[in-house]
Amino acid sequence: MSHPEPTQPVFSARASELKQSGGQTEGMIRSNAIVDKCEGICATSMLAKPHTASAVHHHGEQDTIVYAVKGRGSVVSEGGKKRVDLEPGDFALIPAYMEHQEVNDGNEDVIWTIVRSGRIPEVVNLTGWNGEPAKG
Predict the structure, then answer these.
(1) What angle do CA 31, 60, 74 make, to 5 degrees?
(2) 106 closest CA partner among 74, 128, 67, 131
(3) What is the pLDDT of residues 74-131, one digit of tens each?
């Protein structure tokens, strides 16, 4: 064989078995899918109920890729001045430390698959734009 042996078997996370994870905001349900399985990458799911917005937050040193699965939602950033709308099939990149909010202004659930550049997802909720970390 011309490459190293894999360090672990293929892992799957069944949608029916995902559990809610930390950093929750009312109306936003974040669930771990593939977390703490390998260095440098993790995956989660985010469900945003209709007419909800997350707290302003960032993901520390982790870059984040969003894939829109269902519904139409938005990523708001730059102090609330920039809005990127996503519909099913769209991708977005949220750079490390970028303050942002996930927003669902619609009447249906929004579901996004999220991949981060860390072993365990980091969510730092803030007191507002350019705010301090919110207390727990």
Answers:
(1) 60
(2) 74
(3) 999 999 999 999 999 999 999 999 999 999 999 999 999 999 999 999 999 999 999 9
Cβ count within 10 A of residue 118:
19
3-class DSSP assignment, residue 93: strand
- What would the two tokens of residue 100 be? 């942002």
Task: Tell me how far apart the alpha carbons of residues 6 and 127 are, in angstroms, rounded to a whole number.
Answer: 43
C-alpha dist (Å) from residue 48 to 9, 25, 26, 45, 71: 32, 10, 9, 10, 9
> Is this structure's pTM higher than 0.85?
yes
Structure tokens at 113: 């698959």
Q: What is the pLDDT of residues 2-35, one digit of tens each?
A: 899 988 899 999 999 998 886 677 889 999 999 9
In whole angstroms, what is the distance from residue 87 CA to residue 56 CA? 21
DSSP secondary structure letter of residue 129: T
Q: What distance in Å separates the CA atoms of residue 54 and residue 134, rounded to the nearest whole number?
A: 13
Give the separation between CA 102 and CA 92, rounded to whole angstroms: 12
